[in-house]
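COMPLEX REQUEST
Ligand: pyridoxal-5'-phosphate
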Amino acid sequence: MGKLAINGGPKVRQKPFPPWPPKDPGFKERLGEVIDSGVWGMGGEMQREFVRTFAEWCGATYCVACTSGTTALELALRACGIGPGDEVIVPAYTFIATASSVVSAGAKAVFADIDAATLNLDPRATEAAITERTAAIIPVHIGGMPADMDAFLALGEKHGLKIIEDCAQAHGAEYRGKRVGSIGDAGCFSFQSSKNITSGEGGAVTTSDPEIHARAWSAHNVGRVPEGRWYDHRVLGWNWRITEFQCAVLLRGLELWDEQDARRQVNAAYLRERLEDVPGIEAQAFIEGADKSAYHLLVLRYAEEAFDGLDRDRFIAALDAEGIPTWRGYNPLYREGLFAEEYGSLHLPVTEHACERGSFWLGQHMLLGEREDMDDIADAMLKVWKNREELLDE
Ligand SMILES: Cc1ncc(COP(=O)(O)O)c(C=O)c1O
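STATUS: Structure written out below.
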Protein backbone atom coordinates (compact mmCIF):
# COMPACT_ATOMS: atom_id res chain seq x y z
CA MET A 1 0.00 0.00 0.00
CA GLY A 2 1.29 3.45 -0.93
CA LYS A 3 0.47 6.98 0.15
CA LEU A 4 -1.46 7.73 -3.03
CA ALA A 5 -5.14 6.75 -3.14
CA ILE A 6 -4.56 4.95 -6.46
CA ASN A 7 -2.21 2.65 -4.50
CA GLY A 8 -4.59 2.14 -1.57
CA GLY A 9 -3.73 5.26 0.49
CA PRO A 10 -6.32 7.68 1.96
CA LYS A 11 -8.11 10.01 -0.49
CA VAL A 12 -7.58 13.78 -0.27
CA ARG A 13 -11.29 14.35 -0.90
CA GLN A 14 -14.40 12.27 -0.20
CA LYS A 15 -17.11 14.83 -1.17
CA PRO A 16 -18.51 15.48 -4.64
CA PHE A 17 -18.20 18.91 -6.28
CA PRO A 18 -21.32 21.09 -6.77
CA PRO A 19 -23.80 19.62 -9.29
CA TRP A 20 -24.40 21.10 -12.74
CA PRO A 21 -26.90 22.20 -13.99
CA PRO A 22 -27.90 23.79 -10.67
CA LYS A 23 -31.17 22.88 -8.97
CA ASP A 24 -32.79 26.29 -8.78
CA PRO A 25 -36.57 26.67 -8.23
CA GLY A 26 -36.61 29.72 -10.54
CA PHE A 27 -36.39 27.40 -13.55
CA LYS A 28 -39.74 25.78 -12.65
CA GLU A 29 -41.37 29.18 -12.26
CA ARG A 30 -40.32 30.33 -15.71
CA LEU A 31 -41.26 27.00 -17.30
CA GLY A 32 -44.70 27.35 -15.69
CA GLU A 33 -45.08 30.73 -17.42
CA VAL A 34 -44.54 29.01 -20.79
CA ILE A 35 -47.21 26.40 -20.07
CA ASP A 36 -49.63 29.10 -18.94
CA SER A 37 -48.96 31.16 -22.09
CA GLY A 38 -50.06 28.32 -24.37
CA VAL A 39 -47.21 29.09 -26.81
CA TRP A 40 -44.42 26.50 -26.80
CA GLY A 41 -42.70 27.15 -30.11
CA MET A 42 -42.12 30.01 -32.51
CA GLY A 43 -43.71 33.39 -31.89
CA GLY A 44 -43.61 33.35 -28.10
CA GLU A 45 -42.64 36.03 -25.61
CA MET A 46 -39.74 34.09 -24.01
CA GLN A 47 -37.88 33.84 -27.30
CA ARG A 48 -38.40 37.54 -28.04
CA GLU A 49 -37.20 38.46 -24.56
CA PHE A 50 -34.24 36.11 -24.70
CA VAL A 51 -32.80 37.26 -28.05
CA ARG A 52 -33.19 40.90 -27.02
CA THR A 53 -31.61 40.30 -23.60
CA PHE A 54 -28.78 38.07 -24.84
CA ALA A 55 -27.75 40.41 -27.66
CA GLU A 56 -27.59 43.29 -25.19
CA TRP A 57 -25.79 41.14 -22.60
CA CYS A 58 -23.07 40.36 -25.16
CA GLY A 59 -22.88 43.95 -26.44
CA ALA A 60 -24.17 43.00 -29.90
CA THR A 61 -27.16 44.44 -31.76
CA TYR A 62 -28.81 41.15 -32.81
CA CYS A 63 -29.18 37.56 -31.70
CA VAL A 64 -30.66 34.50 -33.41
CA ALA A 65 -31.37 31.73 -30.92
CA CYS A 66 -31.12 28.22 -32.36
CA THR A 67 -30.88 24.51 -31.55
CA SER A 68 -27.18 24.17 -30.68
CA GLY A 69 -23.70 25.65 -30.83
CA THR A 70 -23.10 23.43 -33.85
CA THR A 71 -26.03 24.93 -35.77
CA ALA A 72 -25.04 28.43 -34.57
CA LEU A 73 -21.63 27.97 -36.23
CA GLU A 74 -23.16 26.75 -39.48
CA LEU A 75 -25.68 29.61 -39.46
CA ALA A 76 -22.91 32.17 -38.92
CA LEU A 77 -20.77 30.66 -41.69
CA ARG A 78 -23.68 30.59 -44.14
CA ALA A 79 -24.78 34.09 -43.13
CA CYS A 80 -21.23 35.31 -43.80
CA GLY A 81 -21.52 33.86 -47.31
CA ILE A 82 -19.05 31.00 -46.74
CA GLY A 83 -19.57 27.96 -49.01
CA PRO A 84 -18.03 25.67 -51.64
CA GLY A 85 -14.57 26.76 -52.79
CA ASP A 86 -13.86 28.64 -49.56
CA GLU A 87 -11.34 27.77 -46.88
CA VAL A 88 -11.90 28.54 -43.21
CA ILE A 89 -8.99 28.50 -40.75
CA VAL A 90 -9.76 26.79 -37.44
CA PRO A 91 -7.78 25.40 -34.49
CA ALA A 92 -7.58 21.62 -34.03
CA TYR A 93 -7.59 21.92 -30.21
CA THR A 94 -11.36 22.41 -29.92
CA PHE A 95 -14.67 20.57 -30.12
CA ILE A 96 -15.42 18.85 -33.45
CA ALA A 97 -18.23 21.33 -34.33
CA THR A 98 -15.75 24.20 -34.91
CA ALA A 99 -14.48 22.28 -37.94
CA SER A 100 -17.43 20.05 -38.89
CA SER A 101 -19.69 23.12 -39.27
CA VAL A 102 -17.27 24.36 -41.97
CA VAL A 103 -17.65 21.06 -43.84
CA SER A 104 -21.43 21.21 -43.38
CA ALA A 105 -21.46 24.66 -44.95
CA GLY A 106 -19.67 23.18 -47.99
CA ALA A 107 -16.26 24.78 -47.32
CA LYS A 108 -12.86 23.32 -46.37
CA ALA A 109 -11.51 23.42 -42.83
CA VAL A 110 -7.83 24.38 -42.67
CA PHE A 111 -6.21 23.61 -39.33
CA ALA A 112 -3.64 25.99 -37.86
CA ASP A 113 -1.61 25.47 -34.69
CA ILE A 114 -2.30 26.94 -31.26
CA ASP A 115 -0.17 29.03 -28.93
CA ALA A 116 1.57 26.97 -26.23
CA ALA A 117 0.75 29.35 -23.36
CA THR A 118 -2.89 30.20 -24.12
CA LEU A 119 -3.85 27.04 -26.08
CA ASN A 120 -5.86 29.37 -28.33
CA LEU A 121 -5.43 29.64 -32.11
CA ASP A 122 -2.02 31.21 -32.90
CA PRO A 123 -2.36 34.31 -35.12
CA ARG A 124 1.07 33.74 -36.72
CA ALA A 125 0.24 30.14 -37.64
CA THR A 126 -3.12 31.41 -38.89
CA GLU A 127 -1.53 34.01 -41.14
CA ALA A 128 0.82 31.39 -42.58
CA ALA A 129 -2.22 29.24 -43.49
CA ILE A 130 -3.98 32.01 -45.47
CA THR A 131 -4.38 31.34 -49.22
CA GLU A 132 -6.39 33.11 -51.92
CA ARG A 133 -9.29 30.78 -51.03
CA THR A 134 -9.40 31.72 -47.35
CA ALA A 135 -12.72 33.37 -46.55
CA ALA A 136 -12.94 33.27 -42.75
CA ILE A 137 -11.17 32.48 -39.49
CA ILE A 138 -12.88 30.92 -36.47
CA PRO A 139 -10.93 31.81 -33.32
CA VAL A 140 -12.24 29.70 -30.42
CA HIS A 141 -12.12 31.20 -26.92
CA ILE A 142 -11.03 27.87 -25.52
CA GLY A 143 -12.12 27.07 -21.99
CA GLY A 144 -13.60 30.58 -21.93
CA MET A 145 -10.25 32.34 -22.41
CA PRO A 146 -10.45 35.19 -24.95
CA ALA A 147 -8.35 34.59 -28.07
CA ASP A 148 -6.06 37.28 -29.53
CA MET A 149 -8.89 39.20 -31.19
CA ASP A 150 -6.80 42.26 -32.16
CA ALA A 151 -4.55 40.04 -34.21
CA PHE A 152 -7.46 38.18 -35.85
CA LEU A 153 -9.34 41.39 -36.64
CA ALA A 154 -6.15 42.78 -38.22
CA LEU A 155 -5.81 39.62 -40.35
CA GLY A 156 -9.48 39.94 -41.32
CA GLU A 157 -8.95 43.53 -42.37
CA LYS A 158 -5.74 42.87 -44.26
CA HIS A 159 -6.97 39.82 -46.20
CA GLY A 160 -10.72 40.58 -46.43
CA LEU A 161 -11.79 37.69 -44.17
CA LYS A 162 -14.79 37.20 -41.90
CA ILE A 163 -13.99 36.61 -38.23
CA ILE A 164 -16.44 34.26 -36.55
CA GLU A 165 -15.90 33.88 -32.80
CA ASP A 166 -16.59 30.44 -31.36
CA CYS A 167 -17.89 31.51 -27.94
CA ALA A 168 -19.41 28.11 -27.10
CA GLN A 169 -17.32 27.99 -23.90
CA ALA A 170 -17.02 31.70 -23.26
CA HIS A 171 -20.31 33.26 -22.08
CA GLY A 172 -19.44 36.61 -20.51
CA ALA A 173 -15.68 36.46 -21.22
CA GLU A 174 -14.16 39.89 -21.85
CA TYR A 175 -11.52 41.19 -24.22
CA ARG A 176 -10.42 44.83 -24.04
CA GLY A 177 -13.59 45.74 -22.16
CA LYS A 178 -15.97 44.01 -24.60
CA ARG A 179 -17.81 40.77 -24.13
CA VAL A 180 -16.98 38.03 -26.61
CA GLY A 181 -19.58 37.61 -29.32
CA SER A 182 -19.51 41.36 -29.98
CA ILE A 183 -15.96 41.59 -31.37
CA GLY A 184 -15.86 39.64 -34.65
CA ASP A 185 -18.41 39.65 -37.49
CA ALA A 186 -20.46 37.08 -35.57
CA GLY A 187 -20.29 35.13 -32.31
CA CYS A 188 -21.55 31.57 -31.79
CA PHE A 189 -22.71 30.27 -28.41
CA SER A 190 -23.73 26.84 -27.10
CA PHE A 191 -26.26 26.22 -24.33
CA GLN A 192 -25.62 22.46 -24.14
CA SER A 193 -25.88 20.93 -20.63
CA SER A 194 -22.30 21.44 -19.50
CA LYS A 195 -22.14 25.11 -20.54
CA ASN A 196 -22.05 28.02 -18.07
CA ILE A 197 -25.49 29.12 -19.30
CA THR A 198 -27.56 26.15 -20.39
CA SER A 199 -30.98 24.95 -21.51
CA GLY A 200 -29.93 21.33 -21.95
CA GLU A 201 -29.36 21.97 -25.66
CA GLY A 202 -29.48 25.24 -27.57
CA GLY A 203 -27.33 27.87 -29.25
CA ALA A 204 -27.19 31.47 -30.46
CA VAL A 205 -25.56 33.64 -33.08
CA THR A 206 -24.80 37.24 -32.10
CA THR A 207 -23.88 39.99 -34.54
CA SER A 208 -24.15 43.73 -35.07
CA ASP A 209 -24.39 43.37 -38.85
CA PRO A 210 -28.01 43.57 -40.04
CA GLU A 211 -27.33 41.48 -43.16
CA ILE A 212 -25.64 38.68 -41.23
CA HIS A 213 -28.56 38.75 -38.80
CA ALA A 214 -31.16 38.63 -41.57
CA ARG A 215 -29.44 35.73 -43.34
CA ALA A 216 -28.94 33.74 -40.14
CA TRP A 217 -32.57 34.35 -39.17
CA SER A 218 -33.86 33.05 -42.52
CA ALA A 219 -31.49 30.07 -42.54
CA HIS A 220 -32.62 28.97 -39.04
CA ASN A 221 -36.29 29.37 -40.00
CA VAL A 222 -36.66 27.31 -43.20
CA GLY A 223 -35.87 30.24 -45.46
CA ARG A 224 -38.62 32.53 -44.17
CA VAL A 225 -38.26 36.29 -43.74
CA PRO A 226 -39.65 38.10 -40.67
CA GLU A 227 -42.23 40.05 -42.67
CA GLY A 228 -43.21 37.08 -44.87
CA ARG A 229 -46.14 34.68 -44.66
CA TRP A 230 -45.87 31.23 -43.03
CA TYR A 231 -45.58 29.47 -46.41
CA ASP A 232 -43.12 31.86 -47.99
CA HIS A 233 -39.65 30.31 -48.27
CA ARG A 234 -37.22 32.53 -50.12
CA VAL A 235 -33.86 30.86 -49.53
CA LEU A 236 -32.52 27.48 -48.41
CA GLY A 237 -33.06 27.07 -44.69
CA TRP A 238 -33.52 24.56 -41.91
CA ASN A 239 -35.69 24.27 -38.83
CA TRP A 240 -33.07 25.14 -36.23
CA ARG A 241 -35.49 27.14 -34.07
CA ILE A 242 -35.31 27.20 -30.30
CA THR A 243 -38.36 26.49 -28.08
CA GLU A 244 -40.05 28.70 -25.52
CA PHE A 245 -39.04 26.22 -22.82
CA GLN A 246 -35.36 26.63 -23.65
CA CYS A 247 -35.61 30.43 -23.68
CA ALA A 248 -37.41 30.43 -20.32
CA VAL A 249 -34.60 28.37 -18.77
CA LEU A 250 -31.94 30.55 -20.42
CA LEU A 251 -33.49 33.75 -19.06
CA ARG A 252 -33.30 32.31 -15.54
CA GLY A 253 -29.75 31.12 -16.28
CA LEU A 254 -28.75 34.67 -17.16
CA GLU A 255 -30.11 35.88 -13.81
CA LEU A 256 -28.11 33.24 -11.94
CA TRP A 257 -24.94 33.83 -13.93
CA ASP A 258 -23.74 36.97 -12.05
CA GLU A 259 -23.38 35.18 -8.74
CA GLN A 260 -21.98 32.01 -10.35
CA ASP A 261 -19.47 34.00 -12.38
CA ALA A 262 -18.30 35.96 -9.34
CA ARG A 263 -17.69 32.66 -7.53
CA ARG A 264 -15.78 31.15 -10.44
CA GLN A 265 -13.59 34.24 -10.74
CA VAL A 266 -12.67 34.29 -7.05
CA ASN A 267 -12.07 30.55 -6.85
CA ALA A 268 -10.09 30.41 -10.10
CA ALA A 269 -7.86 33.29 -8.98
CA TYR A 270 -7.20 31.56 -5.65
CA LEU A 271 -6.57 28.19 -7.29
CA ARG A 272 -4.19 29.77 -9.80
CA GLU A 273 -2.25 31.16 -6.84
CA ARG A 274 -2.13 27.79 -5.07
CA LEU A 275 -1.01 26.06 -8.28
CA GLU A 276 2.06 28.28 -8.41
CA ASP A 277 3.42 25.96 -5.71
CA VAL A 278 2.79 22.78 -7.69
CA PRO A 279 5.76 22.02 -9.97
CA GLY A 280 4.82 21.15 -13.54
CA ILE A 281 1.27 22.53 -13.42
CA GLU A 282 0.50 25.89 -14.96
CA ALA A 283 -2.85 27.49 -15.76
CA GLN A 284 -3.74 28.67 -19.28
CA ALA A 285 -2.17 32.13 -19.77
CA PHE A 286 -4.01 35.43 -20.25
CA ILE A 287 -2.72 37.50 -23.17
CA GLU A 288 -2.72 41.29 -22.96
CA GLY A 289 -6.30 42.46 -23.57
CA ALA A 290 -7.89 39.22 -22.32
CA ASP A 291 -9.55 40.84 -19.31
CA LYS A 292 -11.64 37.93 -18.14
CA SER A 293 -12.01 34.21 -18.79
CA ALA A 294 -15.49 32.73 -18.52
CA TYR A 295 -13.85 29.68 -16.89
CA HIS A 296 -16.01 27.12 -18.61
CA LEU A 297 -12.88 25.06 -18.08
CA LEU A 298 -9.80 25.77 -16.08
CA VAL A 299 -7.33 24.55 -18.70
CA LEU A 300 -4.08 23.43 -17.09
CA ARG A 301 -0.75 22.75 -18.72
CA TYR A 302 1.13 19.67 -17.55
CA ALA A 303 4.93 19.35 -17.80
CA GLU A 304 5.87 15.68 -17.43
CA GLU A 305 9.56 16.64 -16.95
CA ALA A 306 8.65 18.17 -13.58
CA PHE A 307 7.09 14.79 -12.64
CA ASP A 308 10.23 12.84 -13.69
CA GLY A 309 8.52 11.71 -16.87
CA LEU A 310 5.19 10.63 -15.34
CA ASP A 311 2.74 10.75 -18.22
CA ARG A 312 -0.27 13.00 -18.07
CA ASP A 313 -2.87 10.21 -18.27
CA ARG A 314 -1.31 8.39 -15.31
CA PHE A 315 -1.25 11.68 -13.37
CA ILE A 316 -4.95 12.24 -14.13
CA ALA A 317 -5.82 8.70 -12.99
CA ALA A 318 -3.97 9.30 -9.70
CA LEU A 319 -5.76 12.62 -9.24
CA ASP A 320 -9.11 10.99 -9.92
CA ALA A 321 -8.40 8.39 -7.24
CA GLU A 322 -7.75 11.27 -4.81
CA GLY A 323 -11.32 12.50 -5.49
CA ILE A 324 -10.46 15.16 -8.08
CA PRO A 325 -12.05 14.37 -11.47
CA THR A 326 -10.42 16.01 -14.50
CA TRP A 327 -10.40 15.45 -18.27
CA ARG A 328 -7.56 14.77 -20.66
CA GLY A 329 -9.43 16.77 -23.32
CA TYR A 330 -9.48 16.65 -27.12
CA ASN A 331 -7.70 14.62 -29.75
CA PRO A 332 -6.23 16.80 -32.53
CA LEU A 333 -9.35 17.22 -34.68
CA TYR A 334 -7.50 16.14 -37.84
CA ARG A 335 -6.96 12.72 -36.20
CA GLU A 336 -10.70 12.17 -35.69
CA GLY A 337 -12.24 9.65 -38.11
CA LEU A 338 -14.09 12.42 -39.97
CA PHE A 339 -10.83 14.08 -40.99
CA ALA A 340 -8.11 11.43 -40.56
CA GLU A 341 -7.87 10.34 -44.18
CA GLU A 342 -7.92 13.83 -45.69
CA TYR A 343 -5.40 15.28 -43.22
CA GLY A 344 -3.25 12.16 -42.69
CA SER A 345 0.08 13.93 -43.13
CA LEU A 346 -0.74 17.02 -41.06
CA HIS A 347 1.30 17.66 -37.90
CA LEU A 348 0.66 20.62 -35.63
CA PRO A 349 3.24 20.13 -32.89
CA VAL A 350 1.80 22.44 -30.22
CA THR A 351 -1.71 21.00 -30.69
CA GLU A 352 -0.38 17.43 -30.56
CA HIS A 353 1.63 18.12 -27.42
CA ALA A 354 -1.38 19.69 -25.68
CA CYS A 355 -3.73 16.86 -26.70
CA GLU A 356 -1.42 13.94 -26.07
CA ARG A 357 0.66 14.98 -23.06
CA GLY A 358 0.60 18.63 -22.18
CA SER A 359 -2.83 19.69 -20.89
CA PHE A 360 -5.90 18.68 -18.90
CA TRP A 361 -9.05 20.38 -17.63
CA LEU A 362 -11.13 21.08 -14.57
CA GLY A 363 -14.85 21.71 -15.20
CA GLN A 364 -16.54 25.02 -14.38
CA HIS A 365 -18.83 23.43 -11.77
CA MET A 366 -15.76 22.61 -9.66
CA LEU A 367 -15.11 26.35 -9.39
CA LEU A 368 -18.57 26.91 -7.89
CA GLY A 369 -17.53 25.48 -4.53
CA GLU A 370 -15.78 27.06 -1.56
CA ARG A 371 -12.16 28.02 -0.99
CA GLU A 372 -11.60 24.65 0.79
CA ASP A 373 -12.63 22.87 -2.40
CA MET A 374 -9.88 24.73 -4.26
CA ASP A 375 -7.45 23.69 -1.50
CA ASP A 376 -8.44 20.05 -2.05
CA ILE A 377 -7.67 20.38 -5.76
CA ALA A 378 -4.25 21.97 -5.18
CA ASP A 379 -3.43 19.62 -2.27
CA ALA A 380 -4.24 16.56 -4.36
CA MET A 381 -2.00 17.75 -7.22
CA LEU A 382 0.82 18.47 -4.78
CA LYS A 383 0.35 15.06 -3.15
CA VAL A 384 0.65 13.29 -6.49
CA TRP A 385 3.76 15.34 -7.33
CA LYS A 386 5.40 14.56 -3.96
CA ASN A 387 4.66 10.85 -4.28
CA ARG A 388 5.30 10.55 -8.02
CA GLU A 389 7.89 7.81 -7.49
CA GLU A 390 5.05 5.49 -6.46
CA LEU A 391 3.70 5.80 -9.98
CA LEU A 392 7.04 5.70 -11.76
CA ASP A 393 8.13 2.45 -10.12
CA GLU A 394 5.33 0.41 -11.67
C1 LIG B 1 -15.72 25.11 -28.69
C2 LIG B 1 -17.06 24.53 -29.03
N1 LIG B 1 -17.64 24.82 -30.21
C3 LIG B 1 -18.85 24.36 -30.54
C4 LIG B 1 -19.56 23.55 -29.70
C5 LIG B 1 -20.87 22.98 -30.16
O1 LIG B 1 -21.94 23.26 -29.32
P1 LIG B 1 -23.18 22.23 -29.20
O2 LIG B 1 -22.72 21.06 -28.40
O3 LIG B 1 -24.21 23.04 -28.51
O4 LIG B 1 -23.58 21.86 -30.59
C6 LIG B 1 -19.03 23.23 -28.44
C7 LIG B 1 -19.79 22.44 -27.47
O5 LIG B 1 -19.79 21.47 -27.04
C8 LIG B 1 -17.74 23.72 -28.10
O6 LIG B 1 -17.18 23.43 -26.92
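REMARKS: Residues 68-70, 94-95, 97-98, 140, 166, 168-169, 190, 192, 203 surround pyridoxal-5'-phosphate (CB under 6 Å). The first helix runs from residue 25 to 37.
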